[in-house]
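Anyone able to model this chain together with coenzyme A?
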Amino acid sequence: MNRLVIIGTGGHGRVIADLAVKNGYTNICFIDDYATGACLGFPIIGTCDHIEDENDGETDFIIGIGNNSTRKEISEKHKVNWATIIHPSAQIAVGVSIGKGTAIMACAVVNACASVGNHCIINTGAVVEHDNIIDDYVHISPKAVLGGTVHIGKCTHIGIGATVSNNIDICSDCTVGAGALVVKNIAEKGIYVGLPVRKMR
Ligand SMILES: CC(C)(COP(=O)(O)OP(=O)(O)OC[C@H]1O[C@@H](n2cnc3c(N)ncnc32)[C@H](O)[C@@H]1OP(=O)(O)O)[C@@H](O)C(=O)NCCC(=O)NCCS
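re: yes, here you go
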């Protein structure tokens, strides 16, 4: 577990690089369709077309791209060893399961018996309370708080600082806006904002 290829040199990819260093990866490089040269001193070795070329069976890969659909698309295309990366300051409780390709950022809390799917982002300082079920490709933004026994469907984005009350079910392909408050189930995909949330479109 020494070599890590990070796909994407944007903001999220660069935060992943910091996690990689803190997780003991010593051979870190980037793949990016739009950038060349180096990023944070780590080489950019090619575009997404070259992912398979780097797959020697020993290298780990992670998608450092914040857009949920893009992570889904890339991960479905390539069969490689997707790494799960957790910042050392994150609090992961007993009975938690975390899928492959998922990143848990600094000071996030994932409490007892929660399950986090594949290629998710639990961002800086987010709280995922006990018994949550977070499906694949979900992004829980910085400082968002999910009460106990919440279910978040595939590809849904919970915005920065949003709050979801306990026992709430939010379906796939939703965006819950920054600072929003969810107190009832959301069963229809769309963008929801406000306190409590209303569908925006
Ligand atoms: C909800 C969201 C997706 C809407 O984006 P958008 O479609 O580009 O919307 P706009 O910025 O054009 O705003 C449209 C209207 O909605 C309002 N609005 C936008 N986001 C809002 C929010 N989170 N809460 C309340 N109102 C909001 C705007 O003030 C604007 O109102 P107006 O028409 O009266 O001026 C976006 O604002 C948001 O909250 N994204 C989450 C960002 C985030 O968490 N990032 C984390 C990255 S780590």
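Residues 123, 141-142, 159-160, 175, 177-180, 191, 193-194 surround coenzyme A (CB under 6 Å).
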